[in-house]
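We include the entry.

. . .
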Amino acid sequence: MSKQEYISRYLLIINYLKRGQANWSDVLNHLKTQSEITGYNYVISQRTFQRDINEIGSLWNFEIQNNKSTGYYILAQEKEDNENFQLLDSFNLYNALSLSNNYSQLIEFETRIPKGTEHIYGLLHTIKNRFVIELNYHKFYEDEAEKVVVHPYLVKQFKGRWYLLCIKESSGKVRTYGLDRIIDFDIRKKKYVVDKELNLAEKFKSCFGIITPEELKPERVVFSLSAEQAKYIITYPLHVSQRVVKETRDEVTFEITVYITYDLLMELLGLGEQITIISPKKLIKEYTAINKNILNKY
């Protein structure tokens, strides 16, 4: 069996257990069914299944637990930890295209392709090894590129674009740089000391987008949508904190806890007439003002 087929089997197991708990017989029957559908032999022994569990944990950091009293296997993954599921989605697509080159003709990809992804591997290398780097960075509103020395901490995606979250060496402040505006970067011959009190992933947890206003605090935002439109938000949440607080036949009310930023306002505006913002008052005021400005243009 090729390495690609091993990975395919791992993906089948993870995706099956994402649906809920299952015993060994359930898993085996699923692998048999998939073997018949695809023409590949995914059938394995229970001993091999145990080895697969270890490999899945090593490759993707998915922990598959077995309740020995019931015999059921479960995928033990925190809901808030969605990075692994995003990686899994990428592997699922890659696997589908790799197993058969005929499938590539059946997929229409997004035509808006993000720029700067060629920097990701190099930046991850500098983050892992704590190298100080010098960015050659060209802002959209500047005529010339600038040189800036930073301590890279995290690579983050938002709305199809990729960003570098880092500490600007000259100011010691957290800064965000779009990878699509990085011309290139040089790795310095020195390393930086990690600020153990700084957790950028946690800092950005309450942020919608890539900007965290230091003068603001996260607020509880409550809004409602028509029952039909709500289905899209339920299956593709606006934010990790999103939850349903009330539901009727015609309307669903949500809440999220986020910084109220321009990025958030633009997202809410995109929901059009389907949305009603309930609180806070400050957000209602800003949202209303933007809509009035738009109407005044026509």
Remarks:
- The radius of gyration is 23 Å.
- The mean pLDDT is 87.
- The domain at 219-296 is CATH 3.30.70 (Alpha-Beta Plaits).
